[in-house]
Amino acid sequence: MDRRFEEPGGLAMDRALLGRTSTAERVADILRDRIAEGFFPPGARLSEDSIGGALGVSRNTLREAFRLLTHERLLVHELNRGVFVRMVAVEDLGDIYRVRGMVECAVIRGLGEPPYALDQVEAAVEAGERAALERSWQDLSTANIRFHQALVALAGSPRTDELMRGVLAELRLVFHVMDDPRRFHEPYLTRNRQILEALQSGDVVQAERLLSSYLEDSRAQLSSAYARRVAEQVSGR
Fold first, then answer.
1. How confident is the model over 30-35, as a mean pLDDT?
2. N or C: which end of the chain has fewer CB within 10 A?
3. Cis peptide leading into 115, omega within 30 of 0?
4. How far is residue 172's CA from residue 38's CA, in Å, rounded to a whole number?
């Protein structure tokens, strides 16, 4: 088995999360988080023996987890080759942002009367600012994803949370292909705090306006850069 899975911080440490009631869904949750963290980068082949051994689950359970993540567009199965972390197509990126715009803006629009439970939103903003000061750019990327997850969680809808976990994990696959996470995340720190402050003041109209502009700018910036990066990878093969 790949010894990387048994090292500190490796996948074996997640075995305790499964407990006695392990299911394919819980295995999928762990793998989804690990994909989002970049532990399994785009294009990586997922070894049934290594992952199953690290988590202590059966081959059938692991295959069902793979099937669930394939349905979520995070994995792909290639005949006679195995299961791989998906490389997001350039044309899919626009669709990801359409979904984000529809869901995230609708959550803000539907918040109702203040005050709002903003502890997790504020924690994500502060984590991002701290990561920037420490020049920890992957942590900054993670904090930015958590900021958007926390915004969606304000709806109090488990179904919406589940939808956005998959969408944001898919978006994270895009960022893992890019060379410079600082370039794509640091400029949005100020905008994250502006959205938080608008929500703290109870101004959902301003918060939605800021968020809509934020998502459009992010989509435009990332789309062109990602297309160039994918083209470079294809030509370099």
1. 89
2. C
3. yes
4. 8
